[in-house]
């Protein structure tokens, strides 16, 4: 079964064509700057020795999909001979609200519901829908599956997802914690639980904490494969310190800054999402590599930024251990989690109280599960995430 996996942004479109039976990537790429000047398309396939980059302006997502299909069907470098070789399309959709706790087949009613939920994810759901509608127009009759970032977190109990705001805001507008990065958390959680089972840890009672750390970062507390809490909230701003997002703050700080700086709500939203986090604290950049480089050069603000980043995660680990009544493993994934040894080292300080210690001399095998822990009570695991494969698995299971 060939599954085309799409992740549509407002001006971008990432794609992978996956042989879901063998779980092999046949082709992948991205379309950038859709609707803007100087658009580019990157493409890789099993027939190419290296990635190709093509300059190509795209007026909209439908035009971008035309280019994607032209590349996939190309006789010399493509991966299929006919569009009918694609059995299903799996779409990443960021927000599924309370309605969707699992993946769904997309129909007119689902599109209408996803459009309603755009109020909760105005930067993401409309863009996700652009990809869905483009495919439905070009690939009439081919099943379209929506896989929601929020779905995996819908097992949270009410005590974990409710905000202490007037209850009518939850009833009328759905204001509550939802959580995001669900496909990533689910993928690495499943991998971790299977691995821990080989070490004698019961799947049904396993207690793990997944750390998806990248430009956007979030954590989840997972018992027996079910999420009981996660750090992101109504939106992806809450929780950890991220590349340009602030994470947890006193909401009254916005009122104070707004009055002092004469901010509008739009200004505040822009500040929290695009000017804060690693970038705002360090003044150096939003990439963890910039922070580590600054530390090595003796930059005190970069060191402070790392301290804040790691400390926030440590506090959440402690609270999740308390909520779960213990922990069997802490899982690192995402761009920072998989690649920044410095960040992992700082985060794992003081974890010995939970019987978990980082082995600084451990061997990391790229693309595989790596055990980073000194043999004690709990594990520290590095597990590469694969959200596209998770979406393909969800689509295949549904079909």
Model description:
The protein is of the alpha/beta class and 399 residues long. Strand 9 (207-212) and strand 10 (218-223) form a beta hairpin. 37% of the residues lie in helices and 19% in strands. It has helices at 61-73, 108-116, 125-138, 158-161, 167-173, 182-197, 252-261, 265-274, 277-282, 288-296, 300-324, 334-339, 341-347, 387-398; strands at 2-8, 12-19, 24-32, 40-45, 52-55, 88-93, 104-105, 144-148, 207-212, 218-223, 226-230, 329-333, 370-371, 379-382. The model has no long low-confidence stretch (mean pLDDT 94). The protein has 14 helices and 14 strands. It has two domains: 2-148, Nucleotidyltransferase, domain 5, CATH 3.30.420.40; 200-382, 2-Layer Sandwich (Nucleotidyltransferase, domain 5), CATH 3.30.420.
Highlighted features:
single chain, 399 residues, alpha/beta, Nucleotidyltransferase, domain 5, 2 domains, 14 strands, 19% strand, globular
The first-to-last residue Cα distance is 10 Å
* Structure annotation, total helices: 14
How much is the average pLDDT?
Answer: 94
CATH class membership of the largest domain = Alpha Beta
Order of strands across the widest beta sheet? 5-4-3-2-1-6-8-7
Shape estimate: globular
